[in-house]
Description:
This protein is of the alpha+beta class. Helix content is about 40%, strand content about 15%.
Amino acid sequence: MASTTVRHGHGTVMVDPAAYQSPTPWERLEQGRQAKAARGGYAGYGSPAFGQQAVNGELIANPQEAEVADLIRRHHRSGKSLQKIADWLNQRGYTTKRGHQWQRVSVKRVLDRIYGRTPRMSGVDDSRSEHS
Length: 132
């Protein structure tokens, strides 16, 4: 580690400049997001998952998207492939959160979230979620 000699009062002192650096704005934002996520709030990493929306910093259900997510779940349980589900949704005019046509990977992401297969944020323990 590099140290710097600093004149202080009646003598000189060796200090490590890195020990006195304040966090960058990006580091402060990340610390704030992690603290909010730890308290159970929406940490603001991109747009909320399909079926959810952020209102006043909290995630709540989006009724229209939740209905589509339920359709996806039911079709998947009936044995349809991801592509067949995407085709079915597109034929009936349903779109993704960003207004795009459904692809099998977008259907998979919805199913992964429904079945708890993917965490919303890396580095956060998701043991609080329902595993019944």
